[in-house]
Amino acid sequence: MLLAGLTLLAGQPAARATVAGDAVSIPGTWVAQRGARLEAARSARVNVTRTQRRGGRVRLLINVGDARAAKSYWRLKLAVVATSSDKSEPATLDSARVTVAYLDNGERIGWAPRIRLASWAKRDHVDTLLQPPPGTDALRIDFVTPPRGTWTLDVPTLAPVVLTPWHRAAMVALAAGWTGLVMSLLMAAVRRSGSWRIVVVLAGLALVVLGTGFSRTALSIFTAPLVTAIGFFVGVSSQQVSVIVQKGGHAAAFLVLALALCTCRRELALSLPSVIGLCVAVAIGSEALQLFIEGRSPRAFDLLIDLMGALAGVSLFAIASVVARARVARRPATGRASS
Question: Which CATH architecture describes the domain 15-163?
Answer without folding.
Answer: Sandwich (2.60)
